[in-house]
Amino acid sequence: MFLKRMVTKEEYKNNSYVIREALIRLMNEKDGALSGTGAIDVESESQLDPSSLLPKLSASLLVSIKEGDSKTEKKINKLEISYHDTIVHKISFNIAGFKTLTYILENNLPVIQSFITELNSLKDLQSFRYIINTPEE
Length: 137
Hints:
alpha+beta; Alpha-Beta Plaits
């Protein structure tokens, strides 16, 4: 990954810090020059899709809502439709009056973060947990 080559791993606790620091350095650099990797050809950069530069990540989400809460279920269904390309797998089951939804997501970080933020903004969630996995090289 070009992001991981920009920084050394020994300075950081885990890979999320590495990626965050690399993105900050990338945004702060001027004239397309990247520290540690040389210069980028401006013509080829304009042809690239910005999302193709970011690594694909996978994430797991666990969401619990009250069973029979149709308003929240409708809001969740709208989000699922909006992010159908990101959702790889979904499992739904009911236990003790709660509906538990489990999602497996795969996309780049901004898209996954957007889905998690929108889902977490729903007020009637009983429980919400997520894990974002680091990309494999």
